[in-house]
Design a protein that fits this description.
Blueprint (H helix, E strand, L loop, with lengths): L3 E9 L7 E7 L5 E7 L23 H7 L3 E5 L11 H20 L1 E11 L1 H12 L5 E5 L17 H6 L7 H6 L13 E6 L8 H12 L4 E6 L12 H13 L4
Parallel strand pairs: 3-4, 3-5, 5-6, 6-7, 7-8
Antiparallel strand pairs: 1-2, 2-4
Helix pairs in contact: 2-3
Organism: Actinomadura violacea
InterPro entries: AB_hydrolase_fold, BD-FAE-like_dom, GDXG_lipolytic_enzyme
GO molecular function, one term: hydrolase activity
């Protein structure tokens, strides 16, 4: 299957900031559903070209493999915490959802069927976008942050969370809650698949456990998969290819 790639497509332009870009990977089928991929990096680094550390050497790339499976893929940049504070990052992901919903006919995909797939900080943004606005049919979250105030050292002004919010989460509990997906769970939320390594040194697995519990309590379909011995960004994971394949299977099963 031949995948067509459109790099650097502008999906939004905020006054005073750089244009926001996405890369499109298009399968040779009409009306394909869309995977919206949101990269990690602690809200402060990485780009739309980063799928994750353990996938850097994959050929074809993970993006191309998802497209070969019959999805359009939109991998997006968003404003990093050194450029703008929250909620700019959420605004950008929501703008990408809006762009996909409005430009499907132009590029031959179905913008009404979007699966948001994120890793780490990207999982946080994917979940938050799905819970606070329309347009996302399902979420795949890898080792995400879902409750900012429950992260280690909530009073540390140098933490990634503090840089995102502009102050330590412990000092601004209302904003920390507003920026936490767990606080926005509701019964009408789309289904989630959550993954986390049991040996994650940077984002405790309790983050995904807490999110899964909240989703179940609200009656939202959720799969929570623990990866024994895996650290953040899937270091030491015994079967990274299997994690990718099962995440793709979940996306395939989504119907809107």
């Amino acid at each position: 299957m031949s995948v067509r790639v459109l790099e650097g497509v502008e999906y939004a332009a905020e006054v005073g900031y750089r244009p926001l870009l996405l890369d499109l990977y298009l399968p040779p089928v009409d009306a394909a559903p869309v995977v919206l991929f949101v990269h990690g990096g602690g809200w402060q680094r990485c780009t739309r070209r980063d799928f994750g550390h353990e996938f850097a050497g994959w050929r074809p790339s993970p993006f191309e493999r998802i497209a070969e499976a019959g999805f359009a893929v939109a991998s997006v940049d968003y404003r990093l915490s050194g450029e703008a504070r929250y909620p700019a990052q959420l605004d950008d992901v929501r703008a990408a959802v809006g762009w996909l919903r409005g430009h499907g006919a132009e590029h031959g995909f179905d913008g009404s069927r979007i699966v948001a797939w994120g890793e780490s900080a990207g999982a946080h943004l994917a979940a938050l976008a799905a819970l606070t606005g329309p347009g996302i049919a399902a979420v795949v979250g890898w080792y995400g942050v879902y409750d900012l105030a429950a992260m280690p050292d909530p009073g540390d002004p140098a933490s990634r969370e503090a840089r995102l919010l502009g102050a330590p989460p412990g000092d601004i509990p209302e904003l920390a809650a507003e920026a936490s997906p767990v606080a926005h769970v509701h019964s009408g939320a789309p289904p989630f698949q959550l993954w986390h390594g049991t040996a994650d040194r940077f984002v405790p697995m309790a983050q995904s456990e807490r999110m899964a519990d909240a989703l179940r309590a609200a009656g939202v379909p959720v799969e929570f998969r623990q990866v024994e011995g895996a650290d953040h960004i899937w270091r030491n994971a015994p079967d990274v290819a299997g994690i990718f394949a099962r995440s793709l299977d979940f996306a395939r099963g989504v119907r809107t």
